[in-house]
Fold:
Amino acid sequence: MIEQFIREVLAEDVGRGDLYARVSDAVSASAKIIAKSDGVIAGEAYLKVLAEIEKFNIIWHKHDGDRFVKGEVLMELSGDSHTLLRIERTLLNMLLHASSIATLTRKYVDLIAPYGTKLLDTRKTRPLLRNFEKYATRIGGATNHRMGLDDALMLKDTHLKTITNLESFMEEARKKIPFTSKIEIEAEDFEMAAHAMRCGADIVMCDNMTVEQLTEVVKYKWEHHSGVLLEASGNITLETIEAYAASGVDAISTGALIHQANWIDMSMKMD
Structure:
């Protein structure tokens, strides 16, 4: 899957061939990838495949999940000049995209680590980039939420509008979905959260609740349904996430890990 993705990315940029190669001879060359800002590196798994496809060498100074600072050499490249110049933008785009997501993710993870709360990503990913972007959140320290509609049954507010009897629906769902699949139900207030637990939800997503509301739900869970997992979601920011983690919730999900990640800065310099 990674190889196919990389071949498509290369095809997008190279097209029918790099015109520079028509007017120059290839020579042995080397280059460095240099950080121009601080961050957390991600993309190694993809760049290794790129190097195999395009037949150039990488000496790694930083690996997936490592922190780096402005001015550090992240890796050294060697190969023929045509190859290094052809793959420059493909390599940097993947490295920058993944590292930017990992960098923001690590900021969230560091804030909630003392509370033992899991950080989850969401399905708010760019079309056809879900595997790549969710890989980047993992490198940053997050845990993936479901990858798609087929690996867990989530009943959001939109689904619940079509269900007249949640308890009956849950009984039927348990007969039809895989034995290993979990059911998650979204709740916007204490009453709905408690109802979802009574109906047999494996996970209850507490959506757009205040910290005070969430604390009440956590208390109810431990008193009546200790096996249920609680997930907080909805407009949780770097400024507020620690307070949510302190409520005792099991996990916090946010799409911001991906859609609010600003690109950090790196460049390739030929030796």
Summary: The chain has two domains: 1-109+262-270, 114-260. The chain has a mean pLDDT of 96.
